[in-house]
User: Fold these one by one.
Assistant:
Number 1:
Amino acid sequence: MTVESLVFSDESIEVPVTIGNRQYTLVEATGDAATKNKNAIAKGTKFINGKVSSIDTINDSEALLISMCLFDDKGSRVPEAVVRGFRSSIMTKLYETCKKISGLNDVEDGKKAKCDHDNCKTNFCPICGTGIETKDSEGNDLDSSEDGSS
């Protein structure tokens, strides 16, 4: 069996962010940030008859991930309490962008990625983050545009 070598850049993906007159940088999640985000989602996941029925901590996990990936102009992490003060539309866009640059939405050729969780028979697995998410954190259909306009 031949296995190709893996080569990674040692630089994380960074996205400049402006909120009002403040400058921030959204940085690709570390392994620790990704793990804490997935654990926060899993912790609040409720099952009925072996299938996911609700996720009580989805909004908490969003603020957590954003706070672990958003840095101010001095290079300091933005506290979760500050992130929670942002408008919902800002948080939603930051979270979606953070997941995208961090590879937390594993999508293979536009189709659902493989996962062992029962609810992956739907479009998106909220436990492991695989698949194509069709709703934002507020239950609205996600816009398919890539330009970031709302």
Note: The two ends are 48 Å apart (CA to CA).
Number 2:
Amino acid sequence: MTAWRTTWWTVAGLVAVAGAIGTPLALGNAHAVSMLVTLALFGAMMGWAFSGEFPNLRRTIPLGIAISTVPFMVPGLVLFLGPAACALVGTLLLTSPYVVAPVRRLIAKRLRRTDIESVGLASPDEALRLQWVESTRQLHDASSDEDRRLIIELRAHILDDLVDRYGAELPVYVWSELHDSGGPDHAPRTS
């Protein structure tokens, strides 16, 4: 576990303990217990209902209970921290590992190192090959029609350079994409 995760879980645990202690003080024991039991039952039912919808998610019932009992801690946090409780809960939610991990994956995918740096140091033939391979990866990862259109225009320029350099006999790597999908593995011959 990274230091950030350890710190987050420690702070979240302390906030949960403070809320669990403060809520009975703020509401009274009977109200606090009835609120906790109601929220836990609702969370268990919610987790059970969603267990079929998310087969990759383990422990849906405990997760449902945990999510639904978070409001139980708010009165106790407000008792101890006042208005800062909302800021603390908001900060914990936004920095949660369940929020940060998908965002980091999305950013890492967008910032993945490209081979464009290598193109400047390569021979002209190798530079064209690297540009073609990188544009293939970018086309595969493109997320919008506009991105795809721009990459296709770039690939058209690369193909023009390849035709200028090689004529009708394009290099095999241009056709490797088609070969991988069952197409020809060489350029068609012109008569």
Note: Residues 3-107 form one domain.
Number 3:
Amino acid sequence: MTESSAQTVTVRTVSGQELSYPWATSIRVDRQGNLRVMRGVRQRAFHPCAEWASYTVENLRCGPLKP
């Protein structure tokens, strides 16, 4: 199995723009629907509820499993 510490969070805005955060370690969505992209314990990007439509997390820490 191949391992790395890479993980990418991609946020799609309501206008269709895709913003990529390859350094993200976690994401948080609060009760109001605001999205926060975190690096460690610090907030590094903020998207108000009305601004973002969806997000995806691509975890590249582990490669494909071999039988």
Note: The beta strands are 7-13, 18-21, 26-29, 35-39, 42-47, 52-59.
